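User: Hello! My lab partner asked me to get a predicted holo structure for this protein. The small molecule is adenosine-5'-triphosphate, SMILES included with the sequence. Please write out the structure tokens.
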Amino acid sequence: MDLFVINRYKENNEKDDLINQETLHLQRLKQKIEERKKTHRKSQINNDVIVIKNDELLRDSGLQDIPAENKISEPELKSAEAKSNNEIQPKRKKKSEQVSTEFKVLGTTDFEKKSKVERVLPYWLSHAYSVSKNLQTLTCKVENQSWLHNTLLTTLTSEGVTHFFPVQEQVIPFIIQQHQHPELLRPHDICVSAPTGSGKTLSFVLPIIQVLMNEIGHHIRALVVLPVQELAIQVAQVFKKYCTNTGLRVQLLSGSTPLQKEQQQIMRFTETLKWICEIDIIVCTAGRLVEHLQNTEGFSLKNLKFLVIDEADRIMDNIQNDWLYHMEKHIKMENHTSNKVPHLNWVGLNSQRSSVHKLLFSATLSPDPELLEEWGLFQPKLFSAIPIQDHPDSNVSKKYTTPDELQEQYVVCSAEEKPLIFYYFFAELKWDKTLCFTNSSQSAHRLTVLLNIWSKGNLKVAELSAALDRTSRELVLRKFKQSEINVIICTDALARGIDIPDCNYVISYDPPRNIKTYVHRVGRTGRAGRIGNAVTIIVHNQVQMFKDILQSGGKSDIPQLEMQNDILQDLMPGYQNAIRETKQSIDNEIHDKVKKSKELKRMSKSKPRKRKHNENKSLNVPMEQ
Ligand SMILES: Nc1ncnc2c1ncn2[C@@H]1O[C@H](COP(=O)(O)OP(=O)(O)OP(=O)(O)O)[C@@H](O)[C@H]1O
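Assistant: Hello! Below are the structure tokens for the protein in complex with adenosine-5'-triphosphate.
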């Protein structure tokens, strides 16, 4: 009985305890809900709802451990939750709004592993027409090309061109063929990436002449844009040579002549036709082109058929790189004003479209889709000497190639040994016809003076830099071609495109700053299938930098030229004398310059400037007609 009583008492007692416990938990639960509501109100910035799950609450409150029959009933909990939710409800957002705020539940593990994105080139870049680099076994005889116009064949033969180089063999017929299609079929634009000295110039000169010589008109029909004056002069000369007996007229617009004179050379005013252009092919620098677009009355590119951009990668880096924008704007504006009411017929559509055939050339043209995008090419085709398919994983945009005939080396020394090694090439190894690159005009000048003094006039050394005017630069190049000068010391102004036949050696006295400069520098020798040698002189702490530069272009290591110390020691006394004299000579030059400028200043102060009789009138003189 005792036991029964005790049991009953215990049971009641336990039940009471449980009920108390339940109430306590319910209170805690409500308190928790209240607390959460408060914190929620505080963090109303995002108006997000804190949804508290029953199970979570139960777990939190410890009610899960209570036997099932003693748990708080589900409806009771629901009503408590509903009560709390009712107050929160107005702030609840629609599902779509919740998504837009991108509510992120912290602590969840729904992170997905991002799949690796493969570099995929557009089809035309990954499937280039392969161009051979082999200039030793030429198979494409010029006289066997039935498509070639007789006039061009005659000029080629007189120039001693018997075989086409690989790039010419592929590109020339392709361009000509594109212009044999019916008018409405727009030709494929092309990009050509072939080594230095592989004959890219004739690859666009010949097809342009052949296509244009069949048409007659007073319009600019081909525009060739180059980055620097020297290159423009060189390309204009090639055009002029091959335009012999074709009736086509070529004009160079490069800033080498005053703008007004150039305007008179290209435009003519007639009563009936107003402004007409006397020229078919314009070869120009980007900067001068913009000047003509903005200042030359009647200068029109409406009938442009070919747009050639040589050294295309360089021209986009150019300071005048918005020339393309100006040119396209000009063409668009002209089309717009001349066709105010476009007709919806064959002729109307044909006159509306801009079908300028774009041809891009360079030895370092990166197959980089983003860069090439800027040219707005139409269904382009790539001709490349770089085997792109062989390197699907590699960063092909950084790969450049040099001619097979070019032997590249580098020599490592201390800064003091640099001039000794440099002199050693001429004095001991008897190198002739050498181009030497430095990184500044001052350094080019100092080296020229040093070498002339040191060799006591036996070596004919000349400098070629931006410090010289155009006539002096042309004279130096002419003398070098005629072997009256053995060594030209220059800056990178001459690194690109300049074709100096018979240049046997290239020395980089200062290492190049990047891979493109390297490729173009060394490419001044080993041209057109001839053997060439290039040496880069680097001091000890530049070795890694130089290797990195080579690697960035996908070039394998080049051999190192070992120098014997005793040979350099023998040259030391001569060098020490020469450097003293050089210093003296440069000091004298500076002294003379300062004296001259002082005299000029004094003269300008003492003499009041005479005003020309017709000076005022000469301002804003209309162009001679
Ligand atoms: N088919 C050919 N046969 C013989 N010589 C040629 C032929 N084609 C071009 N040449 C000569 O090869 C030299 C190099 O040609 P070109 O200047 O066109 O090279 P390039 O590829 O434009 O070089 P770069 O990239 O340095 O500008 C020139 O002297 C040119 O006269």
